[in-house]
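Continuing the batch. This is chain 6 of the set; chains 1 through 5 are on the previous pages. Same settings as before, nothing changed between runs. Recording input and output for traceability.
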Amino acid sequence: MEKIVLILDPGEKGIVGNMVVENTSDSTIELGVQGDGPILRDKLMIKAEQATSPALKIYYMVMNMYLDPAGFESNYRPFLDLSRELVSEVPSTGMIMADIGEALIGGDYRDAFEKCFELMEYEALLEQAAMEKKRGKKADNDNSDGNGAGKGG
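Output for chain 6:
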């Protein structure tokens, strides 16, 4: 069984199993945790209204399955529907989504949860590329005077 280190900043809370732990000291602490069950920093938890992008929605669903594996049945169908929608719109997410789905089916909720970070990083890269492409088109339009004559005419 692998040991997981939970790092909590001063005043920060976290979840270990079905308990909430809080760092009441003035310094950062590290807790070595072994066993089954969720281990999660407060900083990594989001609420439904914070899940504003496809990757964050997946993250939110998987986080809930990780925190409450008994709720797998009620959470898996919406996860599957959103996964299909995401992969149909952005096929390049297929491998990451397959990895997340396989981990969930295998009951490795922690692994599925950790793979969600890859999905969020990939989503951020796609958004950055789209913004750069948009800026490039705007710059091309700004360099034109609108009548097709261009410079030197």
